[in-house]
## 1
Amino acid sequence: MLGKGGKRKFDEHEDGLEGKVVSPTDGPSKVSYTLQRQTIFNISLMKLYNHRPLTEPSLQKTVLINNMLRRIQEELKQEGSLRPVFVTASQPADPLSDNFREAQPAFSHLASQPLLPTDFVSTTPLESCLTPASLLEDDTFCTSPAVQHEGPTKPPPPALQPVKDSFSSALDEIEELCPAPTSAEAAAAQTAAGDSKDHASESSVQKPEGFPESRAAEPKLMDSLPGNFEVTASTGFLTDLTLDDILFADIDTSMYDFDPCTSATGAASKVAPVSADELLKTLAPYSSQPVTPNQPFKMDLTELDHIMEVLVGS
Amino acid sequence: FSGAGGGNDIQWCFSQVKGAVDDDVAEADIISTVEFNHSGELLATGDKGGRVVIFQQEQENKTQSHSRGEYNVYSTFQSHEPEFDYLKSLEIEEKINKIRWLPQKNAAQFLLSTNDKTIKLWKISERDKRPEGYNLKEEDGRYRDPTTVTTLRVPVFRPMDLMVEASPRRIFANAHTYHINSISINSDYETYLSADDLRINLWHLEITDRSFNIVDIKPANMEELTEVITAAEFHPNSCNTFVYSSSKGTIRLCDMRASALCDRHSKLFEEPEDPSNRSFFSEIISSISDVKFSHSGRYMMTRDYLSVKIWDLNMENRPVETYQVHEYLRSKLCSLYENDCIFDKFECCWNGSDRQVSFSSTHTIVMTGSYNNFFRMFDRNTKRDITLEASRENNKPRTVLKPRKVCASGKRKKDEISVDSLDFNKKILHTAWHPKENIIAVATTNNLYIFQDKMN
């Protein structure tokens, strides 16, 4: 940070973060370039997800930060350090478990602890934590899949695994419509899909459109980010409302539903900009309450999906 | 600088400062926009609390030939109130983003003020007489008993203390999903545009229940959104032409005669990136925060994070002039990104247009703000620039401002300020130049400074 009035000593290592632009091709300075890139990446994430405004955050700022993240991820991808985006539900999370454990503290203590670069040495946990943008369009918080994935590895909450199964089964219908790369990814999508129907937001209409697209697309790493736009620049304005919104403008009980599956996304989806505090709230059930999933949830999910498809005609 | 009359540099002197003295800044007092009216007699400011304060210049005192009239408060009114968007559970800020004056047509003054969502047309009128001598009413307003009326008289107007009233004449609402960043009145003085992050709407000043969308860059799939509109302005002379700038450093010129929806630009102004300056922050610092046409309409000026650029409308591939505002910040971009300063939206302005040498361009000086309450001026003719500070210290009326200098690196000379000592909370985002005279208004966080050139 820039000091105010204090005299700073010349620091030889400072160039790693500040100072001249380091090109990725420079030999010895490649490390500092990577460090710089990682730092910027983390800062960008913090900016997006630590925001707790009472008013809508600036769309321009969100766009610029997202572009920054995208660019870095594109670079990382090209450098080959990316692993496949989503882990299938069938795959045990063990190969990634250590990563998840590393990622876990970062996400669950978002408010109190800065994301450490070491948490993201492997980008996989990060990627698997990010939701496809279309899901974010439904105002679901992007870390909900992360929490899902953490389920298999961490003793609490065991509830997540059964939930995932219900997702997988409920997804069958939708998977007929378009290719689903991984069931886990679809599961992540499904979480959002199911919850988004609960609340009155135009994004619930947009979801089906973006939904099949994103699932069919390439690693969602980049796609996941811009979804923030819908979260933050919610299109739920009168001019953008359609009949479907009014149809689904039913009671949003997601805030009061303490099922960890729905509360994770529902609570977050109710208010467009998600704050660290809200994240903590949504994560709390996961870590402390082993709640069994409810069957009705599974069935509602299927039905609602079906209705959505019919309405949107996808 | 070269003044219009000869080779004398402009010497800027402190004239006035408005606003609270204490360092504890009330959020509502943060100035968010500054604008002179077309004659320069009135100076309007908008703040974060939704208030508009208008200052009026005193008539020049003939005996005090060494200074121009002072600006005193003329009218204060609450333009916008905070609102709540129930659909999104978010507050709508009452902060005034922009004020634009209409040219004066009669005794009253009109201005447009806007917050993030709603534009309002305000009428500011003076009342200095009132009718007296009604037949049916007493002076205090009570009705007289008709039976006591024995004679009739004609009410007459008698002078009273000047009262300045502001009343909202039009409210242009519900046309913007995203945050309004610009309003611009057309040269036809009948229509105006309002721009938000993704759309630009065209309004008629008389019609509030309808507006036409003329630019829409919202992608069908919001996932694909990578660029937003940052500023827009009508051409000063061609009522069919306007420009809008983007977060990617481009400016598009559109002609409304081409189609109803101007999604295809007529001209695209973009400077290719300098590969030697490429960094992670290249895109962010290229984002244009302000665009202003010159009075002739031949040139336009844009402000991005580190520089001011002058564009010739006839040349799209690069600006004709570029001025570095605070290049020493280029090595600090990471920190400025972290503390969000990199997103600060600085405005820029041309000097007034009246006193000009005939063969040179209409405007010779451009002004813009920086940090540490510094502001910068660039003389386009001499290519000289100056850094001045808006501060209450050492500023007595008619004291000439001392040029400031920032030391980028190496040994700091006496009176220089090192980059690390700059106060990034003291930013000058809004400046305005009197349309006819060398009087400038510079807004710090919550104070308004007025400087004049030294008259001999």
## 2
Amino acid sequence: MEGGAPAGEQRDRETLGAVRSVVFKPSISLEEKRFPRVAGYDFNRGLDLLGLLDSMSSTGFQASNLGDAIEVVNQMIDWRLSHETPAEDCSEEERNPAYRESVGCKIFLGFTSNLVSSGIREIIRFLVQHQMVEVLVTTAGGIEEDLIKCLAPTYKGDFSLPGAYLRSKGLNRIGNLLVPNDNYCKFEDWIMPILDQMLLEQTTENTVWTPSKVIARLGKEINVESSYLYWAYKNGVSVYCPALTDGSLGDMLYCHSVRNPGLLVDIVQDIRAMNGEAIHVGPRKTGVIILGGGLPKHHICNANMFRNGADYAVYINTAQEFDGSDSGAQPDEAISWGKIKGSAKTIKISQFRNEKVVNKLQQWVWATDLKWL
Amino acid sequence: MSDEEHHFESKADAGASKTYPQQAGAIRKNGYIVIKGRPCKVVEVSISKTGKHGHAKCHFVAIDIFNAKKLEDIVPSSHNCDVPHVNRTDYQLIDISEDGFVSLLTDNGNTKDDLRLPTDESLLTQIKDGFAEGKDLVVTVMSAMGEEQICALKDIGPKS
């Protein structure tokens, strides 16, 4: 450019200096405790599950959320009344150190029915089998899918299998899983005599059925160790399902009521019991682990509201909060309702994936070759 | 859940069967079906294919042929239902007694006196009025599953 060279250089230096101070703004140093360093798992260490899970916290994004959730769940498992100072007005028994050592956190586990259709059912069964959770809340499908799997299996299919084609073959699709109609026929044949018997007990023995009592009975009747409901019955784990009619179970209740009417199922008694699960914990803490959204999520949180909030909360779901749904709400929203304590340890693990590209590809594959089915 | 439960109401009869079995899927509108031990005429049938609710099902809405009550049933379409034998016989009306029984002339010249007047208002009025006017009346008696009832009326007398 024109003009004196030294004046131009001076301007350049000033501009550079200004840019540097913006782009290369000196950073504060982060304290490691609050901001751990990012580091993933080193597979040179070999295949080590616990090591891999430990590394989640420092891996970032949802892996870190998973690591935090593991930490919260471990706290739920480890907490004892002996960790707290005794309340001033507590009883003699409550002051006893041995007693305090024996009192742990009460854990509520909620899950939607699609998880029971999937292999997560086996993990739920493990937790119930070993009494690691005390209260379960799920939807009707969460009950029937477990029972039906004892009668006939669910199969792995594909998200893009065409609906009309599947209907014509008597296959029902749950995501990328398939449940043949025949499975539901077997369920019908299995459950109808049980409903007859339950109606008989209602009329002759004055039994008052509630969803949780119906579920316990079904767990008793299925009598197979692969079923989580069997273990729930065996171990006295309560399973609540206020919307028991919203599934194949509801279809069975409907058909049964036409042929052999009169069976009553009392949901009022069950809401007493469910809220009581939270209210009557005494000095114990409560923790909630909720997989999925919808009814199980709200029902558990609402019950905990009656004790001014759960002490630990882990949510794992795919819902988002932008639509104001309860399903997508973060734990902090529940704190505003008193469903989770303000002081609680909470974490939400979000899962979200853009399916469009994947689906387009799969549809092309299926359009060209449907023969393999 | 079997439909055998409908068989328990066996009537003391002369030996002829009151009902016969038929596959639920074969029973059509305007056919007959036994629901909760009552003989009924089918007014509506809908079929839902095998699915989440289990086996394919026939949903029947039917009217009790004697007391006009609406009854419903849902039966797996492959199961058997009971279908009532419904017979209609004509008898000449001879007399109406004070306590509401009718006296009818049978084919072989005997009288049949065990039948009450029908409960249906319009039919009842027709019979009473017609008889009072001295008309020659023939009643149609519908019978099914050991129960009988007058269901129709004919004036066979000369046109006046």
